Q: What sequence folds into this?
């Protein structure tokens, strides 16, 4: 029973990320037939290989085994040096992540989606706060990719006294 559950979870995550079994096996350094057997619930998976699979997904073992967690609906973006959590209403596939990067990378170009969504020139946009830019980015993503996203500022300061 547990073999079938973990196999199904691995297959669902692999598919959501757009990987074929062959491509994912290369990423993990595991034979494709082994991945197929695990996904079919026919192979006992060692902790070492489970760890390799989690690493291939850029997840921890805990995330991989958390059946109630969404596959991937959150990513962290940096806007003007400040980290923001981008939360999506749909799974963020590698293709969507690549599109988000493109929108982010050209943020201050003349014909960029963010400039178009904001109605501002790149110079005017550069003068806005990171929170305003995040709002324009949110609007641009919705217009360009058709997905609803929200941004949350991350306050990552932590003071530890030893």
A:
């Amino acid at each position: 029973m547990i073999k079938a559950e973990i196999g199904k979870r691995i297959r669902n995550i692999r598919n959501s990320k757009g990987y074929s079994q062959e491509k994912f096996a290369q990423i993990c350094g595991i034979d494709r037939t082994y991945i197929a057997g695990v996904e079919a619930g026919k192979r006992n998976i060692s902790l070492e290989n489970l760890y390799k699979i989690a690493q291939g997904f850029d997840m921890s073992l805990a995330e991989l085994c958390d059946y109630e967690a969404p596959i991937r609906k959150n990513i962290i973006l940096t806007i003007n040096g400040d980290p923001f959590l981008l939360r999506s209403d749909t799974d963020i596939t590698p293709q969507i992540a690549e599109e988000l990067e493109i929108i982010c990378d050209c943020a201050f170009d003349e014909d960029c989606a963010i400039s178009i969504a904001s109605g501002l020139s790149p110079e005017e946009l550069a003068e806005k706060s990171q929170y305003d830019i995040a709002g324009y980015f949110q609007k641009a993503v919705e217009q360009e990719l058709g997905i609803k996203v929200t941004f949350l500022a991350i306050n990552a300061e932590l003071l530890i006294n030893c």
